[in-house]
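Hi P.,

Sorry for the delay on this. The queue was packed all week, but I finally got your sequence through. Input first:
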Amino acid sequence: MPRTGQLSRVDEERQSIRREKVQELLLQGLTHRAIAAVVECSLATVSLDVSWIKRNWREKMAEQYDDMRAMELKKLDALEAALWPAAMAGKPHVVERVIAVMDHRAKMMGLYAPTTTRVPVITDDMLDALIAKKEAELLELTAGRTESIEAGETEEAPDGARGREVNSTV
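Then the structure:
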């Protein structure tokens, strides 16, 4: 008799068959609700099966990735070993190839430090504060001009000529 939480051999076989069907329907793009209707089980069971299937996919992908990476690293090792004698003999084009192989290996193994780029971010609060500051500066400047214009003063042009008088208030 199986302990609590364990399935009997028959139940394990049923679960395996159901999960294969759920996976097939999932790959066809059916929703969880549609899968539950086809497989004739609860939506909760389908959700659990889909979680199990996706976790299984991730594990297989990780294993395949590790195998592929190991195979590619072995190829780089073989290339480097074949090129090494000519590189050590001082042939410049071969030295460049060996360095390229070494560079590729280092990238595959993640030996290079990640590069970070700082991007300045302007928040709404920062923009509001800048606008308020510029508005205050503008008010201060215009207040000074308005007082001098009301007093009948004129501004001198940059070349020393007198500017025209303005009789308006801002």
